[in-house]
Amino acid sequence: MLPIVAVIGRPNVGKSALVNRLSGEQDAIVFDEPGITRDRTYRPAFWQDREFQIVDTGGLVFDDDTEFLPYIREQAQAALSEAIAAIFVVDGKLGLTAGDEEIASWLRTQNVPTVLVVNKCESENQGLAQAAEFWNLGLGEPFPISAIHGNGTGEMLEELIKHIPPVDEIEQEEEIRVAIIGRPNVGKSSLLNALTGESRAIVSPVSGTTRDAIDMVVRRGETTYRLIDTAGVRRKKNVDYGAEFFGINRAFKAIKRADVVLFVIDILDGVTEQDLKLAGRIIEEGRAAVIVANKWDAVEKDSHTIYEYQKMLDDRLFFMDWAERIFVSAMTGKRVDNILDLVDRAAEGHRKRVSTSVINEVIEEAVKWHSPPTSRQGKQGRIYYGTQVTVKPPSIALFVNDPKRLDDGYRRYMEKQFRQQLGFKGTPLRLFWRGKRLREGENMGVNRATKV
C-alpha cells in the first residue's frame, strides 16, 4: 500500500482545503463550520517521484467531550498510528493558540516525523512574519502556505518527501473499489467497521454522522479492496445547502468511481422510494452491485421469514434482479464475512470480456429456440451478429436489419440468454441494437440501448 501522511490540526484551520490542494481534487468537503470532517478520509497524492495517501482528519479539541469530539480524537489517533509522517496545520491569521500548543505536545509523544504548516498566509511578504511565532511549538521550521491558492506548498512538500520512499520501492497492487451506499442510518458505517475489523468510521444513531466519503484499503487473500463509506442519501427536497449537500455529492461520486456498490437496505424499513431512486442511480452509472439487507438480527423469524423478505426484495427491486442479495447484521457480524465473496463475483462479471465467436454462438442458439418476431406486413426481425464493445459494465452491440422489428419482449429474451449462457453475475448488462444502415450523422452508435 502507499505510504500514509496524516493531516492534523484544530477545527477550521484549513486541513481539508490542504488535502484538496495536495490531491489535485475537490473531494474533501470544505465548509466554514467546525466539525465538518469527522472520520478519517484518504486521498491519493504525489510529489516528484513520491506517491502517498493523504489522510484528512477531524479538528482536534482535547478539553471537550461533547458531541462527536471524542470520536474525532480516536480517528485522528488511528490515522497517526498508521502514518509515515504527519502534517500539522495551524492558522496563520489567528496566530498561535493554546489548542495548537496542546496538539504540538501530543505530537511530540507520537514518534512520527511532523511538518509544521502555517496556513492562510495568502501574502508571501507577510507569510514569514505570520509563521515566526510558531517556532515556539518546538516542531522545527514552520512553512507558511495558502492551501486555497497553493502558495508555499512546494517548499512544504520538499520537506515532507524526505520521509517518504520513492515509488519504485513501494509494492502496488490492483484493487477492487467498493462503495457503500444507502439512506441515512441503514448501517453503512457499521458495515465498514465490520468488514475492516476496526472502528474505521464513527457510528452513531444521529442521522448524518458520516459526511464525507471515507476510503479504507483492506486485503483478503490475494485481493485488495478499497472500501468507500459514504454519507446517507436523503430525498433532495429535504437537503439544505451545506455539509449534507456536499456529502451527498461525494456519495454520488463514490458510485461513479466504484467497481462494485454495496447497496445497503434497512430490512426493517423495507425498500423505500428513496432506495428505488438510489438503485436507479447505480444502474445509470453502470456499476456492479450487491444488495445488502442489514439489521437481520432485529427481525423476528420463523421458517418462512427469509422467503417472505426475499420475495419483498424481488418485487420491489425487480429491475435489479441481476444483483445478488445477502441478509446480514453489521452489529453482530452475521454473514458479513460472505459479502466480499459476492463482491468478487460481481467485480468479475463487471470486467468480463467474451469473444465475438462465443457471443455469436449464443445468438445462433437463442434464435433457434425463439425466432425474432414478424410484423403484420410479414417482415421479420433478424440479428446478423453481435460483439462486445466494452466492459465495466459489459456492453454488447447487436447488428440487426431493423431495431424496430425487435420488440421489448424479444430484447428481454436475448438479455436473459446472454446472462444464462455467459454468466454476467452481479453486473448490469447493456445491449446496443444497431440497424443495418445508419442515418447520416447518427452516432456510430446506438439506435437503442437496453440496460439490464
In words, what does this structure look like?
This protein is α/β, with parallel strands linked by helices and 452 residues long. It has helices spanning 15-23, 69-81, 98-107, 124-132, 153-160, 188-196, 243-257, 273-284, 305-316, 339-350, 356-369, 408-422; strands at residues 4-9, 41-47, 50-56, 85-91, 114-119, 142-144, 175-181, 214-220, 223-229, 260-266, 288-294, 324-327, 383-390, 395-400, 430-434, 448-451. The chain has a six-stranded mixed sheet, with helices on both faces. Strands 8-9-7-10-11-12 form a six-stranded mixed sheet, sandwiched between helices. It has a four-stranded mixed sheet with strand order 13-14-15-16. α11 crosses α12. The radius of gyration is 26 Å and the shape is elongated. The two termini are 35 Å apart. The relative contact order is 0.09.
